[in-house]
Amino acid sequence: MVLLSIQTLPSSCPTLNNYTFNYRSRRQSQSQSQRRCVKIRSNVIRCGIAEPSGEPAPLGQKTKYNDGLFEKAFMTLFARKMENFAAKSASKNGSQKEEKKKGWFEYDYDSFVDVSRKVMQGRSRLQQQQVVREVLMSMLPPGAPAQFRKLFPPTKWAAEFNAAITVPFFFWLVGPSEVVEVEVGGVKQKSGVHIKKCRYLENSGCVGMCVNMCKIPTQDFFTNEFGLPLTMNPNFEDMSCEMVYGQIPPPFEEDPVAKQPCLADICSIANLSSSFCPKLQA
């Protein structure tokens, strides 16, 4: 999805605290301070993951994250917006049960994913994508798409700039990523973003949610609303993903994801009798 966040710095990160105290020492030379600044920036990004290695957990294991107030605020904001479209739970007598909304900062990532799953219920692929579009549009100020088009016309610079800011601002949603060089229209440029292990796919375990609630809506939003083409290529074998700014996405019918089967080992609603995920049907 098109989501923005500000990475918070967990106070429990010993590496960062040590460098902070060292940095304040007036006895350090300028070169030493500069080297420490580089290390600080590196560790700031890695402190969002609670894994000892600072990297996503191996395939088959769920990555642990340290989510701060800013991350939970965004989870709450989007979850509440999406709850307006979520399917209601049924009570014992069969009627729809009104669920009490959680308070601010009471939502976590699992709650956010659970709301996404409820939005899928009873909706076709196109209807799911339309819900995400409406949620995204509701969070933008009036005239935002037009302003974006003026600031970021579909140029190499705009594509590379958006790739660069995707890494820190999409961290809470998809996990750690890095800018990579890609080829767009025969031109090599650093407008690609390699997501190491997508947090959304890892937690949902659902091909349909990845495609209908993230990939297609995000592609369409950037390409059609913002005027900056974007193609997303999820890898369902290792849960990585590549975002390519500046590349026009293919029609859904020609996209390899259209025939992607369910992730039988991890999807709670997988349909093993179908050759592709049923949620990808129109």
Automatic annotation (TrEMBL):
Q: Which residues form the Beta-carotene isomerase D27-like C-terminal domain?
A: 172-254
Q: What highest taxon heads this organism's lineage?
A: Eukaryota
Q: Which UniProt keywords apply?
A: Isomerase
Recorded GO MF terms = iron ion binding; isomerase activity
Name of the protein described by the UniProt record = Beta-carotene isomerase D27, chloroplastic
Query: Which organism does this sequence originate in?
Result: Nicotiana tabacum
Give the lineage.
Eukaryota, Viridiplantae, Streptophyta, Embryophyta, Tracheophyta
